[in-house]
Amino acid sequence: MKVYAETSRLILREILPEDDKGMLEMDCDPEVHKFFSTGKHTKIGVLSFFAPARSLSGIEY
C-alpha cells in the first residue's frame, strides 16, 4: 500500500480494491453529499470503478 501523506489525524493512501464496500457506504450517506457537487453515485458506478483492480487481483464481488 502506497502512502502519499500522513499526519496524526489523516493518512492519504492509494485506493485498494477492498475499499469498495466502505466507499459505497460513504457514498450512500446523504450527509456526505452536502459537501460535494457531483451528486450521489450509484452502486454500479462505484463497483465499476473497482472492477479493473478486482479482475487483476482475483477478488470476486
Record the SSE blueprint.
Elements: E1 3-6, E2 11-13, H1 20-27, H2 43-57
Antiparallel strand pairs: 1-2
Features:
61 residues, alpha+beta, two-stranded antiparallel sheet
Short overview:
With 61 residues, the chain is of the alpha+beta class. The protein has 2 helices and 2 strands; from the N terminus they run ββαα. The chain has one domain (17-61).
Describe the fold and architecture.
This protein has two helices and two strands, in the order E-E-H-H. With 61 residues, it is an alpha+beta fold. The protein has one domain (17-61). It has a two-stranded antiparallel sheet. Strand 1 and strand 2 (11-13) form a beta hairpin. The chain is flat and about 30 Å long. 3% of the residues are buried.
Low-confidence stretches: none
Mean pLDDT: 74
Strand order of the largest sheet: 1-2
How many DSSP H or I helices?
Answer: 2
The major sheet is characterized as: 2 strands, antiparallel
CA-CA gap between termini: 21 Å
> What is the string of helix and strand elements?
EEHH
Q: Which of globular, elongated, flat, extended, rod-shaped describes the shape?
A: flat
Gyration radius, rounded: 13 Å
Number of strands: 2
Percent helix among the residues?
Answer: 25-40%
> Would you tell me the structural class of the helices and strands?
alpha+beta
How many domains in all? 1
How much of the sequence lies in strands comes to: 5-15%
